[in-house]
Amino acid sequence: MAIWSFATGQWERVAFPQFESVILACQGPSLGKIDSARLCGPGRAVVAVNNAYPAVRPDFWVGMDEADCYEQRLFAEPFPKILRGSYNEHRFHRGFLRDCPSAFFADVDDGGGMWRYQKDGKFAWYKDTFRTALQFALSLGARAIHLAGVDLETRQQHYADGSYLPEDLRIQNQYLYEAQFAFLRSFVAGCAQRGILVGSCSPGSRINELMPFSEVEAVTAHIEARLPSGRPKLHVCAETGPLYVAYYTAAYAQQAAELRATLRQFKLSHEVAAWPEGGSWQANTQAKVQFIQAMRKKHPARPLVYLDADARVRQRPGLFESLDADIAYHLRDGSELLSGTLYFGPTSEADSILEEWAAENAARPDVWDQRNLQAVLHQRPESARAHLLPPSYTQIFDTMAHHGEPVIEHMQASRHLKESPSAA
User: Fold this and answer.
1) 104 touches 3 (CB < 8 A)
2) Among residues 150, 201, 148, 138, which one has the least CA distance to residue 177?
3) pLDDT per position as a tens digit, 328-358
């Protein structure tokens, strides 16, 4: 196939990707009855002919007339535009037509038939763009060609956009359409002999006498049903790095916003979410384990670092980036577990700890949640890999200030919000 580009400042022959399915869109009246946005998509190439653009923004465009016959913005579009080779030196805008982005030029010559391109790379010139566009579709490797907006008659309306031609041009066009209609009859038969389907997506068109008609939605659904499926695999770091999680009730919304700002400051992956109010401070704090379990279900492969909503990250918590443990926490003065900062590894042992913590909360709803967690850990066998965090990772801003510069600081907002039914 002899299609050329001057993009590098010298002429180079190009080859386009191959597509089994091609939708050829023309500007006949039936194009206005189609949702043109449904034409484009994976698994097919959409080729717009002449002034089917801009109603259709295709994968390829074919036009064999001079540039001033078309919407001028077309020539600034990024998709490939296939033009008549001899027009490459035509002046356009501030230069030549060959200088437009993604402009390609096809060799066309009289005679040789629709399959000539397979012999010498040239398209047979029938003195109309429609038949050149059909040859281009074949050159893309099409095993199925679907014609949209192809009507080949002007009795109702001349073009899809409602524009009309003067009567003398209308009559002239109709002679061309009759010739194209007769050509299509033989073209459909010739393609069938080569195992190529030619079908119509042009509702109400006379071409439906020559080939099967299908709604464009049915055609595209059939094409896409054969495509590979599956969700993309996320980057390893996105799945295995620690995720910082926190929840808040209405009274703590401002506290959560300030926590979120410090997480962003250190570019830490996080999810800070609103949580339904439990009716009391005690109930809201005991929801901590349910929230962490929900995050584990949502992010099963990631370590979780839980923070209370009134926490602030003051330095990058590098310890969590290499920590290998089922659970990590701080014991204040070596005896009191503080649950404001907790680490849970992506392990079955961590899941068991969370389940037992939830059960302990249910059995002792009036006991502080962190005391219930400490009771669970005290009763567990040595199989759990626990890591004790330094005080700087769960540092209460005033009573623990003597430990030096905090990594994660807790502001104890509950001291003045505790009486609110939405406090947590």
Assistant:
1) yes
2) 150
3) 999 999 999 999 999 999 999 999 999 999 9
In a shared domain, residues 363 and 252? yes
Same domain, residue pair 206 and 240: no
Q: Is residue 230 part of a domain?
A: no
Report cis status (omega within 30 of 0) of the bond before 54: yes
Residue 60 structural domain: 3-225
Q: How many domains is the chain partitioned into structurally?
A: 2
Tell which of 195, 225, 255 closes a domain.
225
Encode the chain in three state secondary structure: CCEEECCCCCCEEECCCCCCEEEEECCCHHHHHCCHHHCCCCCCEEEEEHHHCCCCCCCEEEECCCHHHCCHHHHHCCCCEEEEHHHCCCEECCEEHHHCCCEEEECEEECCCCCCHHHHCCEEECCCHHHHHHHHHHHCCCCEEEEECCCCCCCCCCCCCCCCCCHHHHHHHHHHHHHHHHHHHHHHHHHHHCCCEEEECCCCCHHHHCCCECCHHHHHHHHHHCCCCCCCCCCHHHHHCCEEEEEECHHHHHHHHHHHHHHHHCCCCEEEEECCCCCCHHHHHHCHHHHHHHHHHHCCCCCEEEECCCEEECCCCCHHHHCCCCEEEEEECCCEEEEEEEEECCCHHHHHHHHHHHHHHHHCCCCCHHHHHHHHHHHCCCCCCEEECCHHHCEECCCCHHHCCCCEEECCCHHHHCCCCCCC
417 has pLDDT over 70? no
Instruction: Say if residue 304 is in the same domain as residue 398.
Output: yes
CA distance 135 to 111: 13
For residues 221 and 242, membership in a common domain is answered with no
pTM above 0.85, yes or no: no
The answer to which of 60-64, 131-135, 284-288 has the lowest mean pLDDT is: 284-288
What distances in angstroms separate CA 14 from CA 5, 6, 80, 100, 331, one per listed residue? 7, 10, 11, 16, 70
CATH of the domain at 315: 3.90.550.10
Query: Is the same domain home to 121 and 142?
Result: yes
Pair 46, 92 in one domain: yes
